[in-house]
Design goal:
Distance between the termini: 29 Å
Low-confidence stretches: none
Number of helices: 9
Mean pLDDT: 96
Helix content: 10-25%
Number of strands: 20
Strand content: 25-35%
Order of helices and strands: EHHEEEHEEEHEEEEEEHEEHEEEEHHEH
């Protein structure tokens, strides 16, 4: 398929509502072609923002897809920033290596800028793809498989004051979503969701259970108030020696240490199970400091949230800095050239300003590295050690690296 002088495909257009089925079918095929359960398909239909989605058409055939959900992202300092959640990206195997992905990424970032959203974020099915478009890995997630037959928990004072009770997941959806919303401002990387997204947490098609139970839920309560919840499945297994079931934690949230510990203690104590499996948890998840033996929990980390500054000045002004900074960044951004050049960032824990400047550069980096460091989970000093950031003025790297850090590591609670 040919492209025009701007590199855009002639068949690239905003998604029309009546083209959704064909568009989504192209996406499903791009991810292996296994059809989803009807309830899952209808949820994604309801969440798709057609006016923020793109398709590439070759005649009547859809051969490329890309979307952008509307979220608000917590950034260091607790502010909530409008962002584009890039999603549903695919190119038909019959149309690879024709520039279709680049064409969609070009149009999408232009749109995001026009919408006034200073950041684009995504999770990557293939991490090698998005770096060339300026996305940097800004947050990791933690997974683990805990041997509950050999690992004990030491819980804090007040844990016994928390009552844990079963609840039907769909019946307490509003309660859980309200608790989640209270936690969003407390950690960079968390997403404030539009109505409808809460349904993702209780989506429970049988085809996705892989032999485990239907989704279960417990609430943690104190003095009549809900202070935490956990959603999980149990996968029974029997060996000659007895039961070897697995508790698979899908989601867990708590307002304080005692509520958090009460939920983990419950999960560790479910009958006929010998392990608890978690995935996509924060890298500083508190259970690591409750367990008697971290080694037998087999922790591992994986890339999670990728961040792309679309408007460098607005993005850097939107967050705060844990120590004072006054640094001139030389930013390289070939894909969004309006970001390229020198920016003076002046900030502290109370606020920041970031403006164009003709002053000499203190630190040089690409927009990809700026995105990786933006939420405070990746240090500029670490990126410099890898040769990805260059210190121009002596001492500037340490100043910027300390300033960009955060007391709480970033975490993306769910994919999109």
């Amino acid at each position: 398929m040919a492209t025009d002088a701007n590199g855009l495909s002639p068949g690239l257009r905003v998604l029309r509502q009546d083209d959704w089925d064909k568009w989504y079918g192209t996406l499903v095929r791009g991810f292996g072609g296994v059809p989803e359960a009807a309830e899952e398909r209808e949820l994604w239909r309801s969440l798709t923002e057609c006016d923020r989605s793109l398709g590439i058409w070759d005649g009547d055939e859809c051969v490329g897809t890309a979307g952008a959900f509307s979220f608000r992202l917590t950034v260091p300092g607790g502010a909530s920033l409008p962002v584009a959640g890039v999603t549903m990206v695919s190119v038909a195997a019959t149309h690879r290596r024709r520039g279709l992905l680049t064409s969609m990424m070009r149009r999408q970032l232009d749109d995001v800028r026009a919408w006034g959203e200073p950041l684009a974020v995504l999770t990557a099915s293939e991490p090698a793809i998005y770096g060339r478009f300026g996305y940097g890995n800004a947050a990791l997630s933690l997974a683990a498989e805990m041997d509950t037959t050999r690992v004990a928990l030491s819980v804090p004072d007040g844990t016994d004051d928390v009552r844990v009770r079963y609840a039907v997941p769909a019946d307490v959806l509003d309660v859980c979503e309200a608790l989640y919303a209270r936690l969003v401002p407390q950690r960079p990387g968390m997403l404030a969701r539009r109505p409808g997204w809460e349904r993702l947490g209780v989506l429970d098609p049988e085809s996705e259970r892989a032999g485990a139970s239907p989704l279960q839920c417990v609430l943690a309560e104190r003095d009549g108030e809900t202070v935490g919840y956990a959603r999980f499945r149990v996968k029974p297994k029997w060996e000659l020696s007895g039961s070897d079931g697995n508790v698979i934690v899908e989601d867990l949230a708590a307002l304080d240490p005692a509520a958090d510990a009460a939920l983990w203690r419950f999960l560790f104590g479910i009958d006929l199970t010998s392990k608890v499996t978690v995935r996509s948890r924060p890298v500083d998840d508190a259970w690591q400091y409750l367990v008697s033996d971290q080694r037998r929990c087999h922790p591992r980390f994986q890339d999670s949230l990728y961040v792309r500054p679309v408007e460098v000045g607005a993005a850097l002004e939107a967050r705060t800095y844990q120590t004072p900074v006054d640094v001139v960044f030389e930013v390289e951004d070939a894909f969004c050239p309006w970001n390229a050049g020198r920016w003076r960032l002046t900030g502290d824990p109370k606020g920041a300003s970031c403006e164009r400047t003709a002053d000499a550069a203190d630190v040089a980096l690409s927009v990809r590295e700026l995105g990786a460091a933006y939420l405070g989970g990746v240090s500029l000093a670490s990126l410099a050690a890898a040769g990805r950031v260059r210190e121009v003025r002596r001492g500037a790297l340490a100043e910027a690296s300390l300033g960009f850090g955060t007391a709480v590591p970033p975490w993306l609670p769910h994919g999109f």
